[in-house]
Amino acid sequence: MGMSRKPRTPREKYGEELRLRRTGAGLTQEALGDQVVCSPTLISHFEAGRRLPNPDDAQRVDRALGTDGFFTRWLEDLESKYADHFAVVAELERQATLIQQFALSLVPGLLQTEGYARALFRAYRPNHRKEELDRDVVIRTERARVLDGPLNPVLWTMLDEAVLRRRVGGPQVMAEQLRKIADMADAGRLRLHVLPFGVGAHALQEGLASILSFEDAASVAYVEGLLTGHLMDDPALVTSSRTAYDLALSDAMSHQESVALVRAAAEEHEHGQQ
């Protein structure tokens, strides 16, 4: 019996059509990349449905392939529900075989509980409507569905100790959030490491970072700041990001020690209610 194929996403259909039109025009990924003014790796990400071209790239694709605005018009129908700087990363998370994430001050979005996410969105928007909060929380927590499979993506999570100590949403919300992370670690769903305050300065101290690896494509790195994010697919930058991750990891506590510290922090938050 043949294996059943999962339904294709709209982005994958877009990418498949691009591949068919490119090969029909007798162009290699390198040749199309030269005309679009981007790397062959980026063309391969477009064709796999991992990335979408920006509007300028789509126009150059149309010119290169003589497709009369086809890919530019289709692009308008594929807008994401995520913020512009994060939309690509949300797509890549679903296709990654390995995610190595680091967080400096907040629990990473993939691991946030509903209560924790709601408290964050309240802090971001002092003038908020309940419907907006509800929508944002659903979008945030839906991302965790990529972890529903027992194996892929393999998830490594490294947290600065500050993530454990900052009381987001109050004592009970924090206790629930930290126990969720510890339970996932104990169940083998994620590898957990904490960078304790005692380490002092470390290689990832400037902020949030993730490295995403794929079965059939080059790795990418993503860093995020206030209202902005930067996705890097340049091999030298990805290698430098991985080196920084490895350096920080070498300063971190072991998986077992980290789980114990997270559980202890959950207890401390809970007792803080009294």
List the helices and strands and how they pair.
Layout: H1 10-24, H2 29-36, H3 40-48, H4 55-65, H5 70-75, H6 84-95, E1 98-103, H7 114-124, H8 130-142, E2 154-160, H9 161-165, H10 171-186, E3 190-195, E4 208-213, E5 220-225, E6 228-232, H11 235-251, H12 255-271
Parallel strand pairs: 1-2, 2-3
Antiparallel strand pairs: 1-4, 4-5, 5-6
Helix pairs in contact: 1-3, 2-3, 7-8, 10-12
Account of the 3D structure:
- The structure is a single chain.
- The chain has 274 residues and is an alpha/beta fold.
- It has helices spanning 10-24, 29-36, 40-48, 55-65, 70-75, 84-95, 114-124, 130-142, 161-165, 171-186, 235-251, 255-271; strands spanning 98-103, 154-160, 190-195, 208-213, 220-225, 228-232.
- Strand 5 (220-225) and strand 6 (228-232) form a beta hairpin.
- Helix 2 (29-36) crosses helix 3.
- The longest helix has 17 residues, at 235-251.
- It is globular and about 65 Å long.
Residue share in β-strands:
5-15%
Helix content range of the residues, please?
40-55%
Work out the oligomeric state of the chains in this entry. single chain
- Rounded to the nearest angstrom, the distance between the terminal CA atoms is 60 Å
